[in-house]
Amino acid sequence: MAISLHQQKNSLKENNKMKHLFFYIAAFLGMLSLGSCSNNNDITNDTATTGVDVTLNFEDYNTTNTTRSFINNVQKEVVDLGDGLTAEVSISNDNKEVKPATRATLQGGTYYLYILDNAGALLHKYTGTLSGNKITWTSPKSKISLTNGTYTFVCTNDVVTNANNALQVLARTNNPLIGVTTKTISDADAKVVLSMKHQSARVRYNIVSYTNEGSGITADIVADASQPQTNGFSINGTANTAQDINASTTASATIPTSGTVVDSPYKKEYNNASAYEYFLPGTAGSGVKLTFTAGTIYGKTLTGKSFTLTSLGSLVRNGSYTVDIKIKPSLLYLYDDGTIGTLADKGNRKPIGAVVEEKTTTKQGLAIALKNAQNGTTYQWSNSDDLNNDAWIDWEHAQVDYDGYEYTWNASRTNDGSIKGNEQVKFPAFYIAGHYNEELTAAGINVTGTNVSKWFLPAVGNWISALKVLGKVNPPQWEMYHHLITDDQLVAFNKIFTDAGGDDIPNRLKLSTTMLERGYGKLYYIQSWGRTIQRAHYNYQDAIRPFCHF
User: Fold this and answer.
1) Are 167 and 285 within 8 A, CB to CB?
2) Runs of H (alpha helix) within 372-415
3) Which of 107, 252, 386, 390 sits at 20 to 30 Å (Cα–Cα) from 77?
4) HSE (CB half, 13 Å, CA atoms) of 433?
5) DSSP state at residue 439
6) In whole angstroms, how large is the CA radius of gyration of the chain?
7) Res. 265: pLDDT tops 80
8) pLDDT (tens digit per residue) in 179-228
């Protein structure tokens, strides 16, 4: 099958008996975007000729079903970064793209078109560049003559290298593309369509933080020596695994400070995502490590903190992933304006409690007061032992009683229909806890956050939550009269309050609104010096530590 260049009239006349088509590749037009072929985001000839029509289509990311099914099975991973910070790492699939992206990101640079005959021999190579809205094939510019027959057309962008007609795709190069089609050219059908396919998976890193955006955050992402570094292809576009190479690679990511901000009455959520970087298919997240090289957040440095991206699993070609890295301080405080945050970014706010549970769309937040009510003065639970209209039979059930607020402020939870939080004589402990806001006001702290509930005397479950989350107490089994809290845990627990100007837990603290059904010792209290939870009679005198919702 012969192919010749016809640049002279004489040569055209001498060959006028040969059936041929003229293929002139000059300025290809197209809007270059991340959109799909169905949206006409193609590059086509911008001049009408009698030659071959060539169209380049660009596939969308995440059109591979295996990517979606993989991501749906990924679990969140919590990493202790140290220095009071944790990172909740999760992977999400980016949505199929429908909006245009910058041309340089998707299709910019130089393109190469290779034309092979039916036997696989290379006949022609064309080079083109992007200029404005046009991609112009610059070398050669002459018309070519193809006899009717079958040809293979291979198109690549400039990040796909060609070494002696062996194509190579390297990891960490920006969006390598290869398009291949085999087409039988005839007088009746001279249209060639090339689908430009992504040869990598792309990954970006989204730092999610609360109340504090962080600044100057950069990171190195290192793939170890067992990960793919080079994928080989023959000049006809088929994979050539003999050229594949595994080797360590490194890329850097910079986290901007111009992402999205989600405001709520109680906290701000910042999302700041890096640009995409590109990995070869088969890269295993277990072999990729992210190490922060600079940056601060919540008043603490991130430099040197690192974790492995195990949750990525095995990356697939054409997959588009976002690694969400939710960086949280291990401790948040509730402030007078109803927001939460760390002490490092309190500004003019005044802390009023330590956060036990953050607020969600379905559940209220929970906080414990920084100080003991009335400077630790002790009070009776009540002057009667027949008060709650519901009571727990045993300790097992008491552990899951979280109704401290209801016992304090709901009249239906009292036998005589009174609201305990308003009964200073009958229920002094409830009253003191419920009126803690008045103490704050007297101390010059005006709680303006409308999302902050009335304060209340906690139930057993409320206290156990505080011990688990703030005190890091997690015994094999929660039992009365057993040492549940170590000396170190109690010191760390108390430090949470004293660091914010609060009080240590006193030796005896009125633990709970939870009431047993019968017998002596119907109420529970915490005895900090003995590290235990115990039972006592209703008229025992104990200190009060209020809780609130937000």
Assistant:
1) no
2) 395-398, 404-409
3) 252
4) 37
5) H
6) 35
7) no
8) 999 999 887 777 888 999 999 999 999 999 987 788 999 999 999 999 99
